[in-house]
Design brief:
By secondary structure, the protein is mainly alpha-helical. It contains 5 helices and 3 strands; from the N terminus they run αααβααββ.
Length: 138
């Protein structure tokens, strides 16, 4: 009888662990924006560094080389602003350098987006200069 109970408990804990792991993975994918298309999601890079080859084409956030003085289109800025806002929602307290590294945006491209999101009161900031941390407001 004791052996049967031990077996049932072992099966239950194994199933529970598997369900928890699947639930956590599903929640992570939902926060990270899906994925699962066979290619690694560049938004989930662990540390800053050189961009993976072809990453700009995968998510479309990075801008191709522009001529000196050439501006980004309004659609491009809006698409990048959406991605930045989503990243800040998922990673409260992130610094501009972290956001730029993860979304593969230069800090100069990021500054306009952050200014606009702050003006729209979609994000808040705490700190000064490079120590500024951003959080989503609602």
């Amino acid at each position: 009888m004791s052996n049967k109970i031990d077996t049932l408990i072992a099966e239950f804990t194994a199933n529970l662990r598997q369900a928890i792991a699947e639930s956590a993975a599903e929640a992570f994918r939902a926060v990270a924006g899906g994925g699962g298309g066979g290619q690694p999601d560049p938004l989930l890079r662990k540390k800053p560094g050189p961009k993976p080859k072809g990453a700009a084409g995968i998510i479309g956030l990075s801008t191709p080389k522009r001529k000196k003085g050439q501006k980004r289109s309004q659609e491009e800025i809006e698409r990048q602003a959406k991605a930045v806002h989503g990243y800040i929602k998922a990673h409260a307290g992130a610094k501009a350098e972290q956001i730029g590294a993860e979304l593969m945006l230069s800090t100069s491209d990021l500054s306009l987006i952050i200014k606009r999101l702050k003006a729209q009161k979609l994000i808040g900031s705490k700190g000064e200069r490079r120590a500024t941390r951003y959080t989503a407001k609602g």
